[in-house]
Design a protein that fits this description.
Number of helices: 8
Helix content: under 10%
Radius of gyration: 36 Å
Oligomer: single chain
Strand content: 15-25%
Structural class: mainly beta
Length: 584
């Protein structure tokens, strides 16, 4: 895309938003529009050879179509002008109503038609728009937000086209209505100009007071207030609108552009819609484990509040996993971006839960998208290789201690600090895993037995208690039963005392072994979780290679705008500082 230098310059910089057709010519019966970066792959009738019909006969891309569309049916002006809150029109006097009537267009559809009077070319136009952000690191290059940007292939554009402030430039193109009034959006539509190539909006606004093209009822599609209602905005070539979106998602910007001469009445009007996609930024807080690569410690349990509330959202019984009441209709009205996030997460819990109707919705977003050169331009929103990632992997009541990841393999004998790889050979007595079972006692050593003591009752005048006597053979090697080797302890004397001090430095590896060394320096170490913090918000990776998130259980819900949200507050957990209570 070109660089943003001036608002007026956008008029000649902006490409036609949807179309023109990419296959066929004026003599073809059918024309093809292939714009995979916008979710458009259609075949439609060529109006020049089909009695003005522009009917779409094939749609091969099920994704939301991004770009700006002048609507085929403009609807009645009185409906557009009606304020549902006050039950009164926004605009009054001669703008309260305008003459329209219903016709059957060349596609066989019923639409509202308005005949321009007088039949001036000024009143024949279509609407296009350029929704964009700029790249400050590349001379303010224009980055459109009505595109599917892949976060790997087009990482720069993807992470610029995110929630936040966008610019919106509306401009006119020549009329796109043919025959009986139906739209021909996908054929070439030149810029609507006057006075030697100037923007028609600008030229007409220079006329008598009240004359111009006006923007009416601009709806940004995110639940914010509708703008330019009682005071429509005069459009000129220098008009640049902007809006800040709080969340990522698919949004439809809609409105009406009408023409008025001297402000006397509505001479003509067209409705338009612009579909955009804002990706989640790297700082966006809400994320249902939608990462390309990540490590999860602890897993996600089926009995967690997160899993239960997620399944409940689509009508799945969170206890029995019964899907008989499940339906995609339960999430109608939810932003399609959130739907994809939700269904992607459910497939990671288990790919057996979602029925065919859910698959039909997300399947177009699960495909690798290629351009006309057969090069991949988008890897899809859902990666089925990550399905069942969280299935049956939940852990409960466990201690998390030293957590590290290395490039390559660091064998256990080295992790534990043994001197050689002899300790890594299972057939060797000193194999690091040759450790006694947890129920072993000293009685499981050779030379240590327990016997009944001498009869205390014999010859006694008072009652005595029977007792057991531990017999220790100090001359025996005192080897563990089963030929276990660890712990390698000194022998016991006949009194039960060790005959020498216990070697705590290197009897089992060394005490500064990597497995417990929080300050280890190793070029192959790529993750070293530092849990020596007050609470979980402070957990860091000491290698600085990774971003860590401590995720607590939470309830997933839909807010008043039908957007996925976390219900309630998430407070960080404290971390045990008492070493005697820790795993190490």
């Amino acid at each position: 895309m070109p660089k943003f230098t001036s608002i007026e310059g956008l008029f000649n910089q902006a490409e036609q938003s949807v179309g023109p057709y990419t296959s066929g010519d004026e003599n073809s019966s059918e024309l093809i529009v292939f714009q995979p970066e916008q979710g458009i792959d259609i075949t439609y009738k060529n109006p020049l050879v089909n009695n003005d019909s522009t009917k779409i006969v094939a749609d091969r891309d099920g994704r939301i179509k991004l770009g700006t569309f002048t609507l085929n049916d403009r609807g009645f002006w009185e409906d557009a002008n009606f304020n549902k809150s006050t039950f009164k029109p926004y605009l009054t006097d001669d703008k309260k109503t305008t003459d329209t009537y219903i016709v059957t267009d060349s596609n066989g559809d019923s639409i509202v038609y308005k005949r321009p009077e007088p039949p001036s070319s000024t009143y024949r136009y279509s609407i296009d728009a350029l929704p964009f952000v700029t790249n400050p690191n590349d001379g303010d290059e224009i980055v459109r937000v009505d595109r599917y940007w892949d976060k790997k292939i087009n990482s720069t554009e993807h992470y610029l086209a995110t929630e936040g402030k966008i610019n919106y430039y509306i401009y006119p193109r020549v009329e796109s209505r043919v025959g009986l009034g139906n739209i021909d959006l996908f054929s070439p539509r030149g810029l609507k100009t006057a006075s030697g190539g100037k923007n028609r909006f600008t030229v007409y606004a220079e006329g008598p007071e009240g004359t111009g093209y006006y923007l009416f009822k601009l709806n940004w599609g995110d639940g914010s207030s509708i703008e330019h209602t009682t005071e429509p905005k005069l459009l000129e070539g220098t008009t640049l609108l902007n809006h800040t979106y709080e969340r990522p998602g698919f949004y439809t910007i809609s409105g009406v552009v009408y023409v008025s001469y001297k402000g006397e009445k509505i001479e003509a009007y067209e409705k338009f819609e612009t579909n955009i996609l804002l990706n989640p930024s790297k700082n966006y807080e809400f994320n249902l484990y939608n990462y390309d690569t990540f490590a999860n410690i602890g897993g996600i349990s089926d009995i967690s509040t997160l899993v239960k509330s997620t399944l409940n959202t689509i009508g799945v019984n969170p206890i029995t996993k019964d899907t008989s009441d499940s339906s995609i209709e339960l999430i109608n009205g939810v932003n399609d971006f959130d739907k994809l996030e939700l269904l992607n997460f459910i497939n990671k819990i288990s790919s057996d839960i979602l029925s065919e109707e859910f698959f039909s919705f997300y399947q177009p977003y699960n495909l690798e998208i290629k351009n006309v050169s057969n090069s991949t331009i988008h890897n899809g929103f859902i990666d089925d290789e990550l399905f069942n990632t969280f299935k049956n992997n939940g852990l409960n009541n466990f201690d998390l201690a030293t957590t590290k990841i290395y490039k390559g393999v660091k064998p256990m004998w080295e992790q534990l600090g043994f001197e050689s790889d002899d300790s890594d050979i299972p057939t060797e007595n000193i194999y690091w895993k040759n450790i006694i079972p947890s129920d072993y006692t000293f009685l499981n050593k050779s030379g240590i037995t327990i016997e009944d003591g001498d009869n205390p009752i014999s010859g006694s005048r008072t009652p005595r208690t029977l007792y057991k006597e531990v017999i220790i053979d100090q001359e025996d090697e005192q080897i563990w039963d089963g030929n276990y080797y660890y712990p390698n302890l000194p022998k016991l004397d006949i009194y039960g005392n060790f005959v020498e001090d216990i070697n705590i430095e290197n009897s089992y590896g060394i005490d500064t072994a990597p497995i417990t060394d929080l300050e280890e320096a190793d070029d192959n170490l790529i993750l070293n979780v530092d849990l020596d913090q007050t609470d979980t918000d402070g957990i860091i990776d000491k290698t600085n290679f990774n971003r860590l998130e401590y995720v607590q259980d939470f309830k997933l819900s839909l807010d008043q705008d039908l957007r996925l949200s976390i219900e309630g507050l998430i407070i960080p957990d404290g971390i045990e500082k008492n070493k005697n209570e820790q795993a190490f």
